[in-house]
Amino acid sequence: MIRFDSVTKRYPDGTDAVRDLTFEVPRGGITVLVGPSGCGKTTTLRMVNRMVEPTSGTITIDGQDIAARPAAELRRSIGYVIQHAGLFPHRTVLANVMTVPRLLGWDTARARTAALEAVERVGLTQEQARRYPSQLSGGQQQRVGVARALASGPELVLMDEPFSAVDPLVRADLQEEVRRLQRDLGITVVLVTHDIDEALTLGDTVAVMRDGGIAQLGTPTELLAAP
Ligand code: ADP
Ligand code: ADP
Q1: 3-state SS class at 102
Q2: Which among 2, 124, 130, 208 could disulfide-bond with 25, CB atoms 3.0 to 4.6 Å apart, if both were Cys?
Q3: Alpha-carbon torsion 84, 60, 201, 36, what sign?
Q4: Residue range 202-212, pLDDT digits in tens
Q5: For ligand 2, mutation pick of 15, 42, 47, 164 (most atoms within 8 Å of CB)
Q6: Which residues are in coiled coils (predicted)?
Q7: pLDDT over 70, % of the chain
Q8: Alpha-carbon separation of residue 73 from 27, 65, 143, 199, 214 (angstroms)
Q9: Distance between CA 187 and CA 44 in Å, rounded?
């Protein structure tokens, strides 16, 4: 579904974050980018929705060069979840989840219906949807972050360390939830983590990154069998 072709990223200060990256993210399932801090995972992920522009190379989604699409339009079509949910503190949960549908120009009623559906999908109640983010636990806030990414019904969702800031018991629940959502909705998830156990638990495909490149790529079974 996503294809990287000889993609490099050099930041203005000269840091080579991604070096000659060529690989494919299959449609459906969860593809995990895993590796130590600084190996280029976040840069790779953010190039998919053009939050970061590659220095050279091509990225295509379903065969279409993403550089040919307006960045803002591309970004709205792809769900994005980060470590700290990044919710607007002065807006209710429901208003937060309505953000992307509203940006897409949906009318209020349609945006509201989609947001409530997404809120319920991630296991939160309508009552919780009326609260402000600070009135929810960290794990619940992450659920809101996931709901916000799903509300407009994207086919592709990018997740950057989505569970790293929540405690381990909640983390297991959230992992389960993302797995279930991926299956139920048939979406494609690309997830970044530094945690190899999480990668092997969640990934249908695991890309082990090192120094801006992919050191190993395969299913968890293949990776565990590798020497
Ligand atoms: P990871 O997600 O694996 O921790 P990153 O993609 O965040 O890796 O970073 C890869 C490398 O690029 C690191 O050396 C990091 O310090 C550097 N880097 C990331 N963002 C920037 C930036 N905006 N400007 C300069 N260097 C950056
Ligand atoms: P994340 O947790 O999303 O990986 P970071 O804390 O690594 O975010 O980085 C926060 C912001 O700083 C990002 O926009 C990233 O691109 C930028 N950044 C990361 N590393 C560097 C760096 N070495 N120099 C400049 N900016 C950086």
Answers
A1: helix
A2: 2
A3: negative
A4: 999 999 999 99
A5: 42
A6: none
A7: 100
A8: 21, 14, 24, 30, 29
A9: 19
